Amino acid sequence: MARGRLVVFEGGEGAGKSTQLRRLAASLGDAGIAHRLFREPGGTPAGDRIRDLLLHRSEPLAPRTEAALFIASRAQLVAAEVVPALARGEHVLLDRFLLSTYAYQVHGRGLPEAEVCSANRMATAGLVPDLTLLLSLPPSEGLSRAGARGGADRIERADAAFHERVASAFRHFSASAWQQQHPECGVIVAIDAVGSEGDVETRLRDAITAQLPGFLTEPVRA
User: Fold this and answer.
1) Residues 6+ apart with CB under 8 A from 23
2) In angstroms, rounded to a whole number, what is the distance separating the alpha carbons of residues 155 and 89?
3) 170: closest CA among 107, 94, 93?
4) Which end of the chain, N or C, is surrounded by fewer C-beta atoms within 10 Å?
């Protein structure tokens, strides 16, 4: 059985990742293509408990604690769900992965990149995404969208300066020089997330078709 593909959606708060991932998953399902959809943190019983602690509890967390929890959830998800699904020939769609840790914990919280990179290598056991689609949206617009949903989580409640640092980091990640220095992140394609859901979906599908021919239409074959 041929290995499935790992496609990651990244971006700041309110960029539309979850909405577009659901649309992509529905398209794959309609085409009869086996796939799994997960979000970070979470995706496993342990990861879901970590998600609750990270996002929905009021007690403060030190930056290193926050990073360690995100990476612990990732390690469990990769080992228990992602790698087995890929081995079965299923495509895996992820809502956040490595870039979020670099953006939020390294650039947002100020943790040393080398230490985070090493922890990520341990968590992923060398797994590299086949494609990361980085949805780009001004942070003010993204936070406005997120606020309209109500019930802001702990990360969304961070101050504007934090979110500006995160947005600046995501912009930096789309540069070819940064990608060459971070091969663990695989191919990264920036997508303009301004506009209607349909417009953004078209841009995403065009990028997927260009980078992974057959992903949207052809079942994985042995």
Assistant:
1) 197, 201
2) 34
3) 107
4) C
